[in-house]
Amino acid sequence: MSTVFIAHVKLSWGKAADYLIANDVEPGLAERWDQGDQNWNAVMVRALINVPVAPYLKSNRVTPPIATGIITSLTAVEAGPATDQLLRTRSQFIMAEIWQRQDVTVNTTFLHHDHPKWSQRQIHADVDYWVNHRRHPLITLITKWRIQLQLARIRKESRQK
Known about the structure:
Layout (H helix, E strand, L loop, with lengths): L2 E8 L5 E5 L5 H9 L13 E5 L13 E13 L2 H4 L8 E2 L1 H4 L4 H9 L4 H16 L4 H23 L2
Antiparallel strand pairs: 1-2, 1-4, 3-4, 3-5
Helix pairs in contact: 4-5, 5-6
């Protein structure tokens, strides 16, 4: 069995969810974990990280909505059937000691990456929430609608098989 890392993430609208750490971020954590570093997870705790807020389609035809959450804690566990069900974070994250010193524009520019327009808007709204504690209810409402739309696509795709 191999060790995987679960990020416990809180979203700006209060929802909490667990995610596997992105494949390309995992090796750095694994190295610290394997060396017995007692602070192996310090770099990630309170980091802002992009996460899918709905599952991916098997066809990958439409990317799910992306949001930026805050990692509340990180756990190392053995990979298994339970972890196979978790979505993975995206690779874009900003350590707490960095994002807390930067303004919304700088943080958003790094995190919005090449995501679709509405995900970029949610990412900006999330960063503004984490940095300035400002809520963006309309953007969040649109994202929640997009989540439901993605879930409907998944149901339709599974019926077609």
